[in-house]
Design goal:
detoxification; TIM Barrel; flavoprotein; NMO; oxidoreductase; Aldolase_TIM; 2 domains; 11 strands
């Protein structure tokens, strides 16, 4: 069976809490955002299948509201990626040695994709979204068969047709301003459309619901993008400073104390927007397109930076609106965003 489109689904929300893998997304954050009227996502990437199942169960205990879960679809594994990551590791080695940290070993993995799909089919959340690649059609059908909507992430209008042929129920149109990894299936390393431009083009090119993401910090900005035809707007960076988020203190501090963001492969081997640091300045040009190989190389160094509060050693993911983050409890921030959106739409 095919799940209903977002616009026809009884769980319609105009604002979405974006998934933020690697720590910031927590059960507490999702529950609080839902309490405030924002549709929440759990981030399943980098978690074990067992931890993902436990988080879903805990969220259902804490909150009666529907929610989504995001996982990474497997990335390509080209033969040259390990060698490219090894060469990059050799460049990073003196940098890591000065911090007293050994680098990891480059390797490929699929983040336990099949096992996580089994968890999600069993749990049947309201929505499952995929980033980094396309899920197999059989996976889409399994999720839809239990009543789950399936969303795919796109960064370029050319990807829309692929997603439609896959049979998904919605498109997350992630613009150039978005913090964190580029979620679409092609990481060409080139500049992409800004959120408003991407939404305008994609909305004209598909009948699927479009969920916009990238650079939105308040309800007024969300209203402008909804006015372009988006069905919903996702916000991630806006929630990073909430006390319920698992964002490292060094990361929270940097959001309002640094001015520049860059899109770089320096941390994981996949293009992602982060606050500029010495690491990004020194190594962005040398970093290869090799995810997750580079991710495993740099993970010990990034973990050390988080633990010690050394911002130059941390992947400080942030969208372009990072300076406008509000340090508020997540439920209060969600209610504020909903109120701002309503006020803007009344004008």
């Amino acid at each position: 069976m095919t799940s209903p489109g977002w616009a026809d689904h009884p769980l319609v929300h105009s604002l979405v809490l974006a998934p933020m893998a690697g720590g910031p997304s927590t059960v507490a954050l999702a529950a609080a955002a839902a309490e405030g009227g924002v549709f929440p996502f759990l981030a399943g990437a980098y978690l074990s299948p067992e931890r993902l199942a436990a988080d879903i169960a805990e969220l259902r205990q804490k909150s009666p509201h529907p929610f989504g879960v995001n996982i990474f679809a497997p990335s390509p594994n080209h033969p040259s990626m390990t060698e490219d990551a090894e060469r990059y590791a050799a460049l990073l080695a003196p940098w890591a040695a000065s911090a007293g940290v050994g680098l990891g070993t480059p390797r490929y993995d699929d983040d336990a994709f099949d096992a996580k799909v089994d968890v999600l089919v069993d749990a049947a959340p309201a929505v499952v979204s995929f980033a980094f690649g396309w899920p197999p059609a059989a996976v889409v059908e399994r999720l839809q068969a239990v009543g789950t909507l399936v969303w795919a992430t796109v960064n370029d209008p050319s990807e829309v047709r692929w997603a439609e042929e896959l049979g998904v129920d919605g498109l997350v149109a992630q613009g150039w301003e978005a913090g964190g990894h580029r979620g679409g299936p092609v990481d060409a390393g080139e500049r992409q459309l800004h959120t408003r431009d991407l939404v305008a083009v994609v909305e004209e090119d598909t009948t699927l619901p479009v969920i916009a993401a990238g650079g939105v910090s308040d309800g007024g900005e969300a209203a402008l993008i909804l006015g372009l035809g988006a069905s919903a707007v996702a916000l991630g960076t806006a929630f990073l400073a909430c006390p319920e988020a698992g964002t490292a203190p060094v990361h929270v501090h940097a959001l309002t104390h640094r001015d520049r963001t860059v899109v770089t492969r320096a941390f994981t081997g996949r293009s992602a927007r982060a606050l500029a640091t010495t690491w990004t300045d020194l190594f962005s040009e040398a970093a290869p397109a090799a995810y997750p190989h580079v991710h495993h190389v740099t993970a010990p160094l990034r973990a050390h930076g988080k633990a010690t509060g050394e911002a130059e050693l941390v992947h400080l993911w942030a969208g372009t609106g990072h300076r406008r983050v509000r340090v508020l409890p997540a439920a209060e921030l969600a209610r504020t965003l909903v109120a701002e959106l309503a006020a803007a739409q009344r004008r």
